[in-house]
Write a structure and sequence with these properties.
The structure holds two protein chains of two kinds. Chain A is an alpha+beta fold. Chain A has helices at 14-28, 34-49, 89-96, 116-123, 156-197, 216-222, 226-231, 234-240, 246-258, 305-355, 359-392, 402-412, 414-419, 438-454, 488-491, 512-522, and strands at residues 53-60, 63-71, 76-78, 83-84, 101-103, 127-135, 138-147, 202-207, 210-214, 263-271, 277-288, 294-303, 398-401, 423-427, 433-436, 463-471, 474-481, 526-532, 536-544. Chain A folds into four domains: 14-180, GAF domain (Beta-Lactamase, 2-Layer Sandwich), CATH 3.30.450.40; 199-303, PAS domain (Beta-Lactamase); 309-392, Helix Hairpins, CATH 1.10.287; 398-544, Histidine kinase-like ATPase, C-terminal domain (Heat Shock Protein 90), CATH 3.30.565.10. Chain A is built from 16 helices and 19 strands. In chain A, helix 1 (14-28) runs antiparallel to helix 2 (34-49) and helix 11 runs parallel beside helix 16 (512-522). Chain B has five helices and five strands. In chain B, helix 3 (71-79) links the parallel strand 3 and strand 4. Chain B is globular and about 35 Å long. Classes of the chains: A alpha+beta, B alpha/beta. The interface between A and B is medium-sized, with 28 and 28 residues. Chain A: Residues 203-260 form the PAS domain. Chain A: InterPro entries: GAF (IPR003018), GAF-like_dom_sf (IPR029016), HATPase_C_sf (IPR036890), HATPase_dom (IPR003594), His_kinase_dom (IPR005467), PAC (IPR001610), PAS (IPR000014), PAS-assoc_C (IPR000700). Chain A: Pfam families: GAF, HATPase_c, PAS_3. Chain A: It catalyses: ATP + protein L-histidine = ADP + protein N-phospho-L-histidine.
Chain lengths: 545, 129
């Protein structure tokens, strides 16, 4: 078939069709570089159009850069020097507008005459067919077909053939660019995995609510295999969070996602595969799409159990020492108050003694002075005792039979019990033993029993019930009476305080229960009280083996 | 203003009350004191006087540490009563706890915190106020 002659029905000549088919095959099977593809394309165009030259120019920063030129004469690939776009405004604008430049008379053609002096005349070019190559709708380069034969006329089939070639070229460039992007992605993921594989921090990436990446360190931290982590659903994740933390975490995540926050942190306990909780600190980085939905959710998770445990230990120590300090301050105030109330009385009495010359009056004040002094001495004695309780709590403990101990105390207070018509019932197994400091147990039991006698009701005879129970390593001993009772609503926090009394009883020094509590606490136990006004009171204390 | 002022002393410390009585005897307008060993007893008397439209005390000396109804509980109770703001209460204590001393200013009816021991001169100043 002769060049330029086309059938009326077919746009492509048979030759063109064959060449295009070959080029398609080549491009589909192509695993080679863009350079080799350009060699093939330029050769195909020169052959298909029967022309002298074919070249491809890429547009770079307002320059036209020749990437490949095939010359039929020399049968070789070379390059032309760059052309400056600013020198060729009309030509360049045409390319930008997507116009195919078809010039049979290049020296006079509107679009090509700008090339006359520096390009066309020196190269002897007479005919040009230039097609813009676009990628993603943007001008990327130009395919130039050039001939040195003034009689040449471009026909429809030439244009159709070249257009098809240009399309193939566009596709090749697009594919090549995609490959480059993919290569970059692979490279950046390789870098990411280098970081994540060597980090102790765990990395997790969610895309569209599905886990797309987890680092080995993350599955290691959780104790699960990678497959198991990939299979985790969102509800599995929330179910593994400690029940006390889960609402807090949920709130942090959904609040921040709602506000389109790019970065946020949360700290919570998480159950590993073995079922043990560890503290983790998560730093989340989130990418959102234009609708505000998250596209990519990257979590960097760190096991902070050691730090957290240390923190909690410090908090605990701080609370203990704060409580101790408060108690110490309270104690200091009480002591100073009790000492001062006596010394202030003494100084006021001395003022009185000085203000009178009457010897009888002086004698009266002197008796008062002696009384005040005794109270002061007692206060200091009790203070001393209190300090001793704290100091001697490490003293050797002795195994005692509780029933025998209580019987000893009852013998000692027999006179008061008889004279006040008191009934004391005790229900304690014969073999009930308890390991204590003997003087403390004696003081505790004596105080609780005499306390009951002191605050008995005048309306009925006093009955005191003493019971003891042992459960595992816990002893519970109860002293219950049917006496006056204490208004616990008003006095709950004062019952065991120093010098707090409740009944306006002149015998009440208010020290007994304070000492009792101190003794029990020194033995590592605790004491509680239940009481109803005019019904009775029950003191219960617990000691541990 | 009548020369003799009526005075309540609410304190469980028998020695202090006795000494205070003696000190008042030595003052020019010696005034008999009505004494109460806890806030509860004093509150009952105040309520009764009020209901019978009798004269309420001009001055009340109030201790803090007391059985039954302590100084703070007494102040809380009288704040709820119609005459709660009109009493002249002097809180007397040997405490050095500053939080307790500062707490006094929360009660409108309290004029002053007076630290024990109290001298004759101080008593005179309070009576003359």
């Amino acid at each position: 078939m002769e060049n330029g002659r086309i059938s009326k029905n077919l746009l492509y000549s048979d030759k063109h069709f064959e060449l295009l088919l070959e080029l398609y095959r080549f491009s589909l099977a192509n695993h080679t570089t863009i350079e080799i593809a350009l060699d093939k394309i330029t050769e195909t165009v020169v052959e298909g159009l029967h022309i002298e030259r074919c070249s491809f120019w890429k547009i770079e920063n307002d320059r036209l850069v020749c990437l490949n030129l095939f010359e039929k004469n020399t049968n070789s690939h070379t390059k032309e020097a760059d052309l400056i776009a600013a020198d060729l405004p009309i030509y360049f604008k045409a390319l930008k507008d997507g116009i195919a430049i078809v010039a049979d008379d290049v020296l006079n053609n509107t679009y090509t005459k700008e090339l006359k002096e520096n390009y066309l005349i020196p190269l002897g070019i007479t005919d040009m067919l230039d097609l813009p190559i676009r990628i993603d709708g943007k001008l990327y380069g130009v395919l130039c077909c050039e001939h040195r034969d003034s009689d040449r006329v471009w026909i429809d089939s030439d244009l159709a053939f070249t257009r098809s070639i240009a399309d193939i070229l566009s596709i090749l460039f697009e594919q090549n660019n995609k490959k480059l992007v993919e290569k970059e992605l692979v490279e950046s993921e390789r870098k990411l995995s280098l970081i994540t594989n060597n980090s102790k921090d765990g990395f997790v990436v969610f895309e569209n609510k599905v886990i797309t990446y987890i680092s080995p360190s993350y599955s290691k931290m959780l104790g699960y295999s990678e497959e198991e982590v990939y299979k985790m659903k969102l509800e599995d994740v929330f179910n593994s969070i400690h029940p006390e933390d889960v609402e807090k975490v949920r709130t942090i995540i959904y609040d921040n996602l709602g506000k389109r926050e790019k970065n946020f942190k949360s700290e919570f306990r998480f159950k590993n595969k073995e079922g043990n909780y560890f503290w983790r600190e998560d730093t989340a980085s989130v990418l959102y799409d234009e609708n505000g939905n998250y596209e990519k959710y990257i979590i960097i998770s760190r096991d902070v159990t050691a730090i957290k445990t240390a923190e909690m230990e410090i908090d605990k120590m701080y609370t203990i020492s704060k409580n101790l300090n408060e108690r110490l301050l309270d104690f200091t105030y009480i002591i100073s108050h009790n000492i001062r109330s006596n010394t202030s009385n003494i100084s006021m009495i001395i003022d009185l003694i000085e203000s009178t010359s009457d010897n009888d009056e002086k004698e009266e004040y002197f008796q008062l002075l002696k009384e005040s002094n005794k109270k002061l001495v007692d206060t200091i004695y009790y203070l001393n005792e209190t300090v001793n309780i704290q100091l001697s709590s490490k003293e050797n403990r002795v195994k005692l039979n509780l029933k025998e101990e209580i019987e000893k105390i009852l013998v000692a207070i027999n006179a008061i019990v008889k004279s006040n018509n008191v009934t004391i019932n005790y229900h304690i197994p014969d073999d009930f033993t308890i390991k204590v400091i003997p003087s403390y147990l004696e003081s505790i039991m004596l105080n609780l029993i005499t306390n009951a006698i002191k605050y008995r009701s005048k309306e009925r005879d006093l009955i005191v019930e003493i019971t003891a129970k042992k459960k595992e390593n816990k002893y519970t001993i109860s002293v219950k009476d049917n006496g006056l009772g204490i208004d616990l609503v008003k006095n709950k926090d004062k019952i065991f305080g120093m010098y707090k009394t409740f009944h306006g009883n002149p015998d009440a020094v208010g020290l007994g229960l304070f000492m009792t509590k101190n003794h029990i606490e020194a033995l590592g136990g605790n004491i509680g009280v239940e009481s109803k006004v005019n019904i009775g009171t029950e003191f219960k204390f617990r000691l541990y083996e | 203003m009548s020369d003799k002022k009526s005075i309540f002393v609410i304190d469980d410390d028998a020695i202090f009350v006795f000494v205070l009585k003696k000190l008042f005897l030595k003052m020019e307008n010696n005034t008999p004191l009505e004494t109460f060993s806890n806030g509860y007893l004093a509150l009952e008397v105040l309520k009764e006087k009020f209901s019978k439209n009798e004269k309420l005390p001009d001055i009340i000396f109030l201790d803090i540490n007391m059985p039954m109804l302590d100084g703070w509980q007494f102040l809380d109770e009288i704040e709820l009563l119609p005459f709660g703001d009109s009493l002249n209460v002097y809180v007397t204590s040997s405490t050095i706890d500053t939080t307790e001393i500062e707490k006094v200013s929360l009660y409108k009816t309290v004029r002053e915190f007076v630290s024990k021991p109290i001298s004759l001169a101080e008593l005179n100043r309070i009576i003359m106020n």
